[in-house]
Amino acid sequence: MTSCLERLVGEPIDAQLESHETIVASSANGLGVEAGHPLLARSATLRGRRSGRSYLYAETVLVPSRLSDEFLHRLGTSRDPIGRILEEEGIAVTREPLAGPDATALSAADRTGTDVGGCLLARSYRVDAAGKPVMVISEWFLTSLEIFLSDR
Questions:
Q1: What span, in angstroms and rounded, lies between the C-alpha atoms of 60 and 71?
Q2: What is the CATH number of domain 2-149?
Q3: For residues 150 and 5, what is the distance between their CA atoms, to the nearest angstrom?
Q4: Whether 124 contacts 95, CB under 8 Å
Q5: Residue 59 and residue 9: Cα distance in Å, rounded?
Q6: Cβ partners under 8 Å of residue 74, min gap 6
């Protein structure tokens, strides 16, 4: 997804971390782990490296025990978006669409407490690797993308 966004906007994309914290799984978690299993909850805004424009806001819940140490190190220390890390680490994934989030119910700015703008589209999906769920991602595509879509 990151490379598609970079092609659309014509610049490299960096993740600006909003939050990154360890949580524990609830009994119904959609990731196939037992209640109490450690998870990583993260939110980030994807921004243009040159322009500084916010293009996408994402919230992710990951199963760290199902991801490599190198993936987790890069996730915690770099500005690389998750999609770039998956691709560069050679982690083959599939995506399964999920219901929600509702793009009209809550803007990304309401979720982050920052002024990232309105939302064009929102989606949620589960990412599987090696046949197991590794993360659930909810994304809000921001209205700053409209200028890139009007010519297409």
A1: 14
A2: 3.40.1410.10
A3: 15
A4: no
A5: 21
A6: 80, 85, 89
Beta-strand ranges (E) seen in 1-152 are 13-24, 38-48, 54-62, 93-98, 119-129, 132-142
Per residue in 75-125, pLDDT (tens digit) is: 999 999 999 999 999 999 999 999 866 554 444 445 555 555 689 999 999
Q: What is the pLDDT of residues 33-63, one digit of tens each?
A: 999 999 999 999 999 999 999 999 999 999 9
Residue 75 sits at φ, ψ, to 5 deg, of -60, -40
**In the chain, where the domains are located:** 2-149
Q: Strands of 64-118 (E only): list them.
A: 93-98
pTM (two decimals): 0.88
Do the Cβ atoms of 81 and 71 come closer than 8 Å? no
